[in-house]
Design a protein that fits this description.
- The protein is an all-beta fold and 123 residues long.
- It has one domain: Jelly Rolls (Sandwich), CATH 2.60.120.10.
- Helices cover 0% and strands 46% of the residues.
- The strands form 2 sheets. The protein has a 6-stranded antiparallel β-sheet with strand order 1-2-3-10-5-8, with no helix packed on it. Strands 4-9-6-7 form a 4-stranded antiparallel β-sheet, with no helix packed on it.
- The radius of gyration is 14 Å and the shape is globular.
- The relative contact order is 0.26.
Length: 123
């Protein structure tokens, strides 16, 4: 049977991620109902807010070595990945494999909207 998630449903409270600046509103789609080990989310990040520098590797007790994909839907951002500063605009995407150190920052004047995908641990 098909399922629908409407805007505003299954929204996680504003989350402070990895010691970043400000808060990020996250709408999660379908959760563990998906047949694949993946999280599908839309992040709404206010101007100047950041995710915080972090790494997902075997030492991460919550996520383990997790790969993340960020696709910019609206706005602009900067990301430092393993010491390299990258600039992103609408339509750009980046994949951060497990073990990479990264931080995501909204550098634009408006809210940044990001499609976020990760290979969530379903064990």
């Amino acid at each position: 049977m098909y399922q629908i998630v409407r805007k505003g449903e299954k929204v996680l409270p504003d989350l402070e991620n990895h010691g970043g600046v400000g808060t990020i509103a996250i709408q999660r789609y379908f959760g563990e109902q998906l047949p694949w080990p993946i999280d599908v989310e839309i992040w709404d990040i206010p101007p100047g807010c950041s995710e915080g520098m972090h790494v997902h590797d075997e030492s991460d007790p919550k996520y383990g070595s997790m790969t993340e994909v960020y696709l910019i839907l609206e706005g602009s951002a900067e990301m430092t990945i393993d010491g390299h500063l990258e600039v992103f605009a609408r339509g750009d995407a980046v994949m951060c494999p497990g073990g990479s150190q990264h931080n995501f920052v909204n550098t634009g004047p408006d809210n940044l909207k990001v499609l976020f995908l990760s290979n969530a641990d379903r064990e």
